[in-house]
Amino acid sequence: MKIIIAGAGAMGSRFGLMLHQANNEVILIDGWQDHIDAINNNGLQANFDGEMVTESLEIYHQDDVSSIDFNADLVILFTKAMQLDSMMQSIQNMVGKNTKVLCLLNGIGHEDVIKNYVPLSNILLGNTMWTAGIEAPGKVKLFGNGSIDLQNLGADGQEAAEEVVAVLSEAKLNAKYSANILSSIYRKGCVNGTMNGLCTILDSNMADFGETDAADQIVEQIVSEFAAVAAMENADINVPEVLAQIKSCYNRETIGLHHPSMYQDLIINNRLTEIDYINGAIARKGKEYGIPTPYCSFLTKLVHAKEQVLAAV
Description:
Blueprint: E1 2-6, H1 10-21, E2 25-30, H2 33-42, E3 44-48, E4 51-55, E5 58-61, E6 72-77, H3 84-90, E7 95-103, H4 111-114, E8 123-128, E9 133-136, E10 139-142, E11 148-152, H5 158-170, E12 175-177, H6 181-202, H7 206-210, H8 215-232, H9 239-248, H10 261-268, H11 279-289, H12 294-309
Parallel strand pairs: 1-2, 1-6, 2-5, 3-10, 6-7, 7-8, 11-12
Antiparallel strand pairs: 3-4, 8-11, 9-10
């Protein structure tokens, strides 16, 4: 399959590498020039569960793709939420009438942007529990196991969605079809809505945060706000299961030493965060539905304040 990874950061690099190793024709598109140069010069270098792997993948800056002759079968979106619209504009020439677009962005409501460029029947929404980190331009750390759930938005698109599931699973990305992806997205939103913002504000990994006295109370309150908003959109969240999943992130023997993507963006790379599309989205929706969301609202403000303190760009 001819696949574009739109947003080749840590997660995009993981998916690009694994799909390339499964003999798909993959190109990466990103906006970080140092990362692009490093991959073009040295290949994508990965610490893949302790094994050093280097693969030669094509990568382009999103401002330079308008003339590339590549009619994609599948686009997987990993760009930052606030960059989604500009990325979709950049890759229009490579998106044909049969191209499927799988959105794996953190956050809620991205289909509202994508449908301006792609028919609803070609849009897939997904949720992934894989993790990854960037150690330096062109160098990523890929560890642990994960999975993907996805679903077609158009009523007649399940067959195409199942084809994408098969391609991802052949690449050992553990994909499966979901009949209710919105619930999966909200469940992942609970994990992102706790681990991302809190570890960023506290400058900690997930294990260190989980061992604090206040961790349980804060996490339970944030999850309750997500669950209340999700219920208004007929998305089911099993709160005890979600809390158990979040607490499993504290395990130092598995992923507890990981710093979430928002931490990597702001603390390591001095980039603006996606907080408006995670906790900020719950705060906006809570206001619309008349649901109090004090923890999500406050955490959103705290992260924005930290962005300003650090002069993030």
